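hey m, so remember when u said the tokens were messed up on ur end? i reran from scratch. heres the input so u can diff it against urs
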Amino acid sequence: MLPGIPLFPGVADYPHWAARLDDLGVRHTAQALLPAAAAGAPAAGFKVLDGLWFRGRGLAWQRVDRAYVARWRQGRAAAAEALADRLDAALAADAMCLRRVVLYELAVLLQDKPGPERARTAISLGLAAGEADILAAALGAALPLGGLDREAAEGVQSAWEHGRLRRATALAARLPAAPADPLLAELLAAIAGAAREADALLAEAARRADGGDDAAAARAYLRAARLAADDERALAGLLRTTPDTPAPEVRAEWEGDALRVRWTDWTGWTDDTAPVDHTDLGFHVVRHLADHPEESVRLGSGHGRAGILDTGAVTGTRVRYSVLPIGDGRIAGLPRTSTPLLVAPEVTDLEVTSGRSGVTGTWRAPDTAAAVRVVRLGPRGPADTEADTETETDADTELPCRRDGFEDPATAPGPRAYLIGCDYRAPDGTIVSSPGRWAGAVMEEWPQPVTTLTVLAAGPLGDAVRLDWPAPARGEVRIVPWDDDPPAPGTDLTGELPHLPSPLITDPAESITVAPGAALRIVAVGVLGRHAVAGPSLLVEALPEIGGLRAERLPDDEIRVVLDWPPSAATLMVGREQDGRSDERPLTRSAYLRAGLRLPATGSACAVTVRAVSTPGADLVLGGAARIELPPQVRVDYRLLKPGWRGGARRTVVVRAVLPGSTGPAAPDAAGEPPAAPGCPDFLLVGRPAVPPLHPGQGTAELRLPGARLTSGEPVHIELDLRDRARPYLLRGFLLGAHSADARLDHPTPDTLVVR
């Protein structure tokens, strides 16, 4: 006969227990614990009236105890692992707890079934047939769970065991005042007695506090808080009556926009109201308003070295942090409390630096700040800085600033001290200011940068430069070479000063030589003490020399140009000047090596220039173009005339030189001599039997006229007797001498050059 149906599970944390059953997809605890072979067949059966038993091998039954749970949990899912932890803890406290839990769960599942169906339903749930009839009969005698508040029944034990007396009292009020379940009746009586004791302690604490005995009141509040951990009156009273703790014990420091609460852990707790193992204390942190401890927020548990990060403090309020020692889940002694703290975070990442234009400050302001303020301090300076007491002004000066920084354009040398703080809007609408952070900087004297820098070519060969600059009012000027892109004028080069190259010159009277093919970037740097400022820069380039330049005229009105290509040049510019016109074209190294250089030209005087291409943006280019001039081209023509049809082998040679710019014979000078016209070559007439001569050495020189005889521009007639020459005899003219390359010979028709 079943003596009675449990009206509550009787184990702590049963709501979490039931949640794990839902995760496993089972309806009651016995189904979850079925052996693996029978898990899919609930009809295999279990017994529960004398503890929870499962059928073993043959006719044997095995009891569910801690060892069974340890075997059952192996290889299970996470939900089963969590359930196994709770089962093991419950069995360690009460070996028969599963009887009560499973009977309660079966009663809940069967209470709504009609009487005849209860036994069959119990068997379908896995209960052995004999016990199913007994359970059905017990439920038939009365429905013990009818109208029961299951939330209260399943949560009251957990609230009681975890010290939440006020919660347990509220749940107990929702349960029958005189339950048939003796264990539940015993629990409700214990809860009622503890509630009366806690109320008495609160009343005693209030009397003690009204009488000015805060120490006694704190002890009474502590005992009440141990009985009712969820009683806010007990906690508020404990916080209000506990003496202030020195700041090193509990401290709160800003960590960005949040507060990190740290404390010194302690183990030697001696208060006789807290009989716990003091060697294994935990600590719980509470934030509360400095003047209203009843307005508190529980932040969590931890240890003092790592502390607790509080991100929820309301800006503009004054708060305190209390650290409560916790043992066995209850307050183990009086709290230790921080000094009051204004929740007004300061700026972070604060940097204040001085420069040539003044002092600059940057920071990151908290998102909750309504405004940021900057005050330049007077001569007294902050108490914790090493700034000199002599500053630029005699009073504190509030400076305009942005949300993330400020600029103070003060230029007089000397120390500066600044206070940077934040304003916040409190819950009551008032503006609350943070204490602020001190920062200092020292304004140093800076050099006056060079304003202008001029450059001129110098030296007898034009391969040097001279620079000129105005003397600055402060500092010295260093003219230094610069390999990379030059800094913009006014750039701070203080950090580069130790690495600057040696000055090229120190006096404008000195000159700087630039090697051909090299480019020199020059920067004027102003220096004073440890500071340096960039001034203007110049680029001077010395073009490579063009050597071996030669030019000669070719037939068909062309000039061939030959030169020694400079190794440092990829492209040259080739210019031509003739007949009052000029042009220029680029010539690449590859094109020159492949095809040489030929230029079109008439017979008039011509000049050819070749130069390297300068760097774009060069301020001064040294060196020029190589130049070669070709004189005007002399044109010489000749004819062979046969003196009559009886002339035979006699011939009259007519040779005439046409000088550039002449239209006829030149007038003789005052002495009667023809004018000197240098540049006319000698004329040579060569003959050879049968084959025409191709150069002056191929045949017999029949006639040679010096250039001087041709400079008059009048035809020269010479009679030749060629009767003793072998026939046919072929003649051809050639130009000889130093000026032959600059002259052109026009030949008559070939048939007139044959003597037959």
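this time it looks ok to me. Confidence is low (pLDDT under 50) at residues 39-43, 383-393, 663-671, 673-677. if urs says something different then somethings off w ur setup not the seq
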